[in-house]
Amino acid sequence: MNATRVLVLNSGSSSVKYQLLDMRDASRLAVGLVERIGEQTSRLKHTCVPSGETREQNGPIADHDAALKAVAEELAKDGLGLDSSELAAIGHRVVHGGMFFTEPTVIDDAVLTEIERLIPVAPLHNPANLTGIRTAMALRPDLPQVAVFDTAFHTTMPEPAARYAIETKLADRYRVRRYGFHGTSHAYVSRRTAELLGKAPQDVNVIVLHLGNGASASAVRGGRCVDTSMGLTPLEGLVMGTRSGDLDPAVIFHLQRVGGMSMDEIDTLLNKRSGLFGLCGDNDMREIRRRMDEGDEQARLAFDIYIHRLKKYIGAYYAVLGSVDAVAFTAGVGENADFVRAAAVAGLEGLGLAVDGERNAVRGDEARLISPDGARVAVAVVPTDEEMEIASQTCALVGKDNRDN
Predict the structure, then answer these.
(1) What is the band of 404 on the pLDDT scale with cuts at 50, 70, 90?
(2) Which residue, 150, 190, 269, 334, has fewest beta-carbon neighbours within 10 Å?
């Protein structure tokens, strides 16, 4: 593959995040965000990384087609346009690939059809992902377009971890099983953690804690996911910013029968008005910390529930793996909230887990160990880089296809 640049697109329902990377040296050439697509207050923020120049556009951007054309214009201003012969491929984040897509895939009509068939299990995400893909394909029909799926890394889960204990025929008919999400992050962080320990991924067992507004945990044995906290949807598992995580399914029946709530109202409650926000009115961990420091008991309770659930998953995945080489914290909260990391492992010394106070307090963009010297289990902070992971997988796939041809 002579061309070495990869454009990574993450198309949301009303936004497009993008990065242009040169895979010769894994450098970023441009990063940007288009938000509030379809509104009068749309905004495009674009940064040319080598020059450091940042430009903004404010005003209505009607749809994803207009958004990507605007992105192409901004890239062209920096000599990085979509018509460049240096552009090897466009890599797309696709949230749900079901069990069909287990690895990055070159997009064709059959792939688009299957992603569309998965919309019922990802109604908020897959339609937006498809819109971005189709728009990019129209702009560069000659260029390989690659889908990298959030669920793919978790397709290695064994059936006992992936199955719910409901009637098998019914589950199969409606594709009800545990898929997991944040897969590109878990893949990247587990591999970087192994590198940090000076070992090959196949020689390391890692518990990855992806803690952002959305949060998930995974148990990774020898580079392969064997369990993860999110399930059919990103609602299951840890306490999140606005999502409840685990709860008794009968809560839904109770709210419908006794509370008179509709299914749509319950859906909104569990996804947008629960988690930390539902418990204390804030889903920003920085604000919760400030409130705790001021003696706010509601914020303290929300934090304690968050940490309690997190510890349960650490312990559960320790049991699933049998032995653990490292616990890795990543994403916005995991990378920046030292008090969350300290609280999550406090009391787990019997499992070989501890953090060094001074190391834990250090802020930085580099992967680092925060456990004491000689700790039985390493505790690490590993900044995630989902865009780099998507670009790497896209580059590897396109390069392989070129060699095969």
Answers:
(1) low
(2) 269
Q: What is the DSSP string of 65-78?
A: HHHHHHHHHHHHHT
CA 153 to chain centroid, in Å, comes to: 11
Q: How far apart are CA 60 and CA 86, in angstroms?
A: 31
pLDDT computed for residue 12 by the predictor = 79
For the segment 56-113, what is each residue's pLDDT rounded down to a tens digit? Answer: 999 999 988 889 889 999 999 999 988 888 999 999 999 899 888 989 999 999 999 9
Q: Please identify every residue annotated as catalytic.
A: 150
Structure tokens, 154:
């978790």
What is the crossing angle of helices 64-77 and 126-139, to 10°? 50
| Three-class SS state of 263 | helix
Please answer whether residues 362 and 315 qualify as being in contact, where contact means their C-beta atoms are separated by less than 8 angstroms. no
What are the backbone dihedrals phi and psi of residue 213, each rounded to the nearest 5 degrees, phi first?
-65, -40
Phi, psi (deg, nearest 5) at residue 307 = -70, -40
- CB-CB contact of 355 with 362 (8 Å): no
Structure letter (DSSP) for residue 396: H
Closest among 396, 376, 389, 403 to 93, alpha carbons compared: 389
What letter would DSSP give residue 350? Answer: G
Tens of pLDDT along 172-204? 999 899 999 999 999 999 999 999 999 999 999
